[in-house]
Amino acid sequence: MKKNLILIGITLLILIGLIFAIAPKRENQSVGEPETPISGKDPILPDTVATATAPTQTSINESESETTAAPRKLQKLQLPKPPTRAEVREEVRDNPHSTPASLVRFAQDTAEVLEQLKASKDPIQFTRLAKALRQCAGVPSPAGQSLPDADYPPQIEVFCFQTLEEIFNDLSEVAGQAGESFDAESTLNGLRPETQRLLKASELLNSRLNP
Amino acid sequence: MPNLASDSPSPLRFLPLATLMGGLLAMISGLGLSGCQSEHPLPSQSLQARLDPGLTEIERTHLTRDSARLARLDLSFPKDRDSIFHSVFTGKTPSAAIAQYLGERIHYIFSASTDVETLMKVTSRLNRSSPPPPRLHYTAMASNLGTPNWFYHEKLGPEKSNSFEFEGQRIFFTSSRVGLIKLGPGYSHGEAHTPQLRRLQTFIHEARHSDCTGGLTASDLARIKKMELPESLACGHRHVTCPPDHIYSGIRGCDEHEWGAYMIGAIFTDALQNHCRDCSYAEKQIAKILTLDSLQRINEDSLSTMLYDASSLPDMTSSGVHPPSQPIPEENPS
Question: Which of these, A113, A112, A153, lies nearest to A136 by C-alpha position?
């Protein structure tokens, strides 16, 4: 009888041990990046962009990540899908005087992604987001020197361009690790004329606010 | 030239013609003369406007929060620099300056659900066959009804023009700065759709429509008398149709004069983006896109004048009719 009780006790202890051993693995799997890509497609815009209304990023519990010994993989950071010219125009047709909600939502969702990038300081994520921001800003590709096909409003293109500048300034070390560089002055000339105009106006306004 | 009597969209961005005419028709039909009976001031000092008792719970909550936020906005500018911000918002501290700016221009805030037009008393016999006023789109944030009603006041005189009752007092539109704001349905949307900064910018923008910069000339008054809009865009800071090559081409949502409502809004949001010490990162990003959208709506010549010429400063005063006693001949109805 005693032997049976001891055996049952040991079995229970082993089971509990097994449960504890398996649990953290499951958690890691839920937040980790897949080991292999699902397809051979470019993981950046436009195929895998998140929708502006439903950001796909899972926020990271900062306090947890600080106390975890082993570094956890971040979920793949993606730039939210920017609204197109047609979408923004449609909104303004309905409500002519307010900033379209889709623009505001894009800025809000992008901020969330950038905060995660700044927290992670991950060169791979940096490269991915920098590429997405270049496309969103309408920066010509280095090889073809042609503008991307995307048809984004100038507000979005300038927003992305300025955000690109910002991450290269704020995360210069990470950019270096990622082998990325960005020359705003030379890139500027490749932008659409209306985007250049708005960018210039934005810079001039800043200079009048900070003479 | 735009005509007040036309059925086409009115250049009065803050009060489409149909709204005004329909409102007048409703009032003429005797739909109601009941006014607001009690004052509901906001607890903090930024938005000192009197509030419509008919405000919904959400509107009241948003207004209280927005006013409190404006009152404690922590904007920091280098002390030895003369920023354009201080030419627009004048006061001891930036938040006090914003409060002063709003306090001079917004005095009454009505609910989106209150039929403001029916609260107004009018005895004029303007266009009885006008269509009913269109409802504001569900995303619209707010409209400033003060200046267009002041135009009518100047056209019809105090005996015939619009007025409304508030706390047992009859309020006449004796100046563009009566500052009557009607909230739109969009103001009550949740934070995801309408973040607080978007609401704050709306008040800054709408407040500018209370300014009749440069005043109304006698010839402008004569135009109003003929149901035409004044030539001066700066009186009421009216918006214009965006030009053909613009992303919003054909839509009446642009400014072609200097220091209009979009520019003042842009100065406010740019200050938030670059000088706000208690704004979150997400709020600064929102401020950035709000600034860009405002700048995008201003025509290039005006932008050049305002931004390239450091001596160009906004006139933040508001005037009445010049000369004030100029009589306007009565139009022959035929």
Answer: A153
Least confident among A143-152, B61-70, B306-315: A143-152
Rounded to a whole number of angstroms, the CA Rg of chain A reads 23
Tell me the C-alpha distance between A15 and B276, whole Å.
55
Given a cut of 60, whether residue B18 has pLDDT beyond it is no
Query: Cβ of A84 under 8 Å from any chain B Cβ?
Result: no
3-class secondary-structure state, position B21: helix
* Cα gap B232→B254, rounded to integer Å: 15
**Amino acid (1-letter code) at residue B150:** W
Q: Which residues of A13-33 are buried (b: 16+ CB within 10 A; e: fewer)?
A: eeeeeeeeeeeeeeeeeeeee
Contacts of B330 (CB under 8 A, 6+ apart): none
On chain A, the residues whose CB falls within 8 A of the CB of B239 are: 96-97
Digit-coded pLDDT (tens) for B127-186:
434 444 556 677 789 999 988 888 888 887 777 778 888 888 888 898 999 999 999 999
Q: What is the pLDDT of residues B39-53, one digit of tens each?
A: 455 555 667 899 999
- B288, B306, B308: which to substitute to probe chain A, counting the most A Cβ within 10 Å? B288
Tokens of B265: 């809004």
Q: Tell me the pairing of strands B321-322 and B216-217.
A: parallel
